[in-house]
Amino acid sequence: MRVSCDTIYQMITPPPFDAYLRNLVAPDEAATQGVLRYNREAHAAPDLLTVILPLRDGVSVSLKL
């Protein structure tokens, strides 16, 4: 099992929190791009079951199948 923090970004955050995050997230920053890449790859991995929990800045939990 892998647990990662700070994995919520504006693309998956429901209103009204998306407007709040849009002011905090700089889409061109390397850290933001790293979070986006991690989320895409974790969700696309066929041997992982991954969910993002909306706790604070986000917690991803991945279970190896």
Q: How many structural domains in the coordinates?
A: 1
Secondary-structure element order, as H and E?
A: EHHEE
Question: What can be said about the biggest beta sheet?
Answer: 3 strands, antiparallel
Strands side by side in the biggest sheet: 1-3-2
Low-pLDDT windows of residues? none
CA-based gyration radius: 12 Å
The residue fraction in helices comes out at: 25-40%
Structural class: alpha+beta
The total count of helices amounts to 2
Q: Can you put this structure into words, describing what you see?
A:
The chain contains two helices and three strands; from the N terminus they run βααββ. With 65 residues, it is of the alpha+beta class. It has one domain (2-64). A three-stranded antiparallel sheet has the order 1-3-2, covered by helices on one side. Strand 2 and strand 3 (59-64) form a beta hairpin. The longest helix is centred in the middle third of the chain and has 15 residues, at 30-44. The mean pLDDT is 76.
